[in-house]
Write a structure and sequence with these properties.
Order of helices and strands: HHHHHHHHHHHHHH
CATH architecture of the largest domain: Orthogonal Bundle
Largest sheet: none
CATH class of the largest domain: Mainly Alpha
Helix content: 55-70%
Shape: globular
Strand content: under 5%
Amino acid sequence: MVNAGQAGNLPADFDGLPIPPTDDPKRYVAEVTRASGSSFFLPMMVLPRPRREAMLALYAFCRETDDVADEIEDDALSGALIKAWGEEVEALFDGRPSHPVSHALVSPIRRYKLSKGHFLDILEGFEMDRSGAMLRPTLAELERYCYCVACCVGLLSVEIFGYRSAKIPEFALHLGHAFQLTNILRDVAEDAERGRIYLPSELLAAHGLEGVTPEEIVRAPGVERVCAAIGAMARRRFAEAARAMPASERRRMRPALLMRGVYEPYLDRIEAGGFRVDGPRDKFGKFQKLSLVFYALLRTL
């Protein structure tokens, strides 16, 4: 397992994790989440305030650390920042938080007994992004990546939502995989611009695309068939998530089901478009997202 603390040597002028000035960590994480424009924000609004604030803090952690992997081109700096975030997680669980996101996480970690290991695994996934590991990964590597960046977020989330059935962690695992595989299908062209191909090497090889480069992937003959196979994997995960969740938990899992109400239609749209990757990125407007969340909400009543 890649540990965030192994993310590379520190640049000579690195001063540690930048700490944004704020006197209100809760407001800080809410603003980070709102500014992201993510589909995540609306479903969280149905939660009672303590759980909602916990989820906003969790999302802000994911947003800030994901941006290190995606937005910083300097390899040494991004590696140093991932390492610094790993050290911040250790400090947080030792009662010594520094960053506003960490301060916002103090109460949720204590109240909902959130696992330090899941936070470190999330960082492992972003290190996989940052380090170049996600260039034609094996199926096993893709599985691990989805677990780190999506399933661990789901496993932390269901602890915040609260549940009684022992099946709920299984539900979170399957739904996390389904969400991340859908994201991969939406972002093939965008990821290629960053030098990444998340499509697994075994499926690429099966369609004669063993050595395809990021520059070639968008127009490579057969890439739609590879994406269709990933789409089928996502469909299976959505179906497994549905089977794993007892009806008695639907109310408590409402935010996850509202997220599914947005993500599964993305997969529907990608499939209806023939899994093409050379067009504009599939996205819903604000009104469409509101409508999808509303109809998903009705199904949970």
